[in-house]
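hey so i finally got around to running the thing on that chain from the lab meeting. sorry it took forever, my laptop kept dying and i had to restart like 3 times. anyway pasting the input first so we r on the same page abt which one it is
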Amino acid sequence: MHSKLNNKLNDEQVPSRWARLCQSDFIYHFRRDKVAIISFALFMAMLVAALLSPWLAPFNPYDLATIDILDSELPPAWLEMGDTRFWLGTDVQGRDIFSTILYGSRVSLIIGLSAVALQLIIGIMVGLSAGYLGGRADSLLMRVADVQLSFSTMMVAIIVSAVFQATLGADFYGQYAVLMLVIIIGLAEWPQYARTIRASVLAEKKKEYVEAAKVMGFKPLRIMFRHILPNCLSPILVISTVQVANAIMSEAALSFLGLGMPVDQPSLGSLISMGFSYIFSGSWWITAFPGLYLVLLVLVINLLGDWLRDVFNPKFYKG
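ok and heres what got predicted. didnt touch it at all, straight out
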């Protein structure tokens, strides 16, 4: 009887994980920062809209049966000659701009998040190995990262993309364009993670808990991934938000240059590229609305990244 009563009291005294999260400094600062709240709400709305685009979009830009060439270059609904069916207008193929933005943002977000995941995997492996092993392994891995950092990210992406298209053929590249762009952008920007993680590992591996793990006979891989890596997550989280925005911009730039998504698979970059040649002929909405959406998406991600950086650096946080 007493043991059951004690267990019940202990359960009532120990807060749940959700309660601890709600009472954490992270949530406290988040609730006090209006910019972070608005940015997070906008990002989640854009993410949900992108994921649910097949159900939210009025038209399917992939379905040729719903596209009429006679509807091409219709202005937004509130302008003269506009059609209420297409409230943001249509492109040169007669596709609804609003629908293509929703579908295109889904492609851009998939590429951005997947490319950052690839950067994260490569950067963690290289950064952990370089920082923990040290010596020649550290010098070799960091020199490789330095060589890649000496080149512009876009230049690396353009070269790799052009090589892929020339080697595999335009048809094969177009069929697997999403996968190719994830690989291209992921391979172009992993050194950012590697250098940051290496610096964190160099600081963490001198601490007592790492020495204790070594004394207990734990293998290096377990020490790196089970003990050191969890203490390096704060800078990784901050970098990831910035890198998602960079990856989306890289995809948009490559698509604009004709090295990204094909025209029949709209992303935000390919939509901007497709309408750019018509912007001076009066059909400004074909490029303007996807461009504004891209700017807003990148802006809210960067604002969240700036807020995370301030939260994890209390010396600079003024919230």
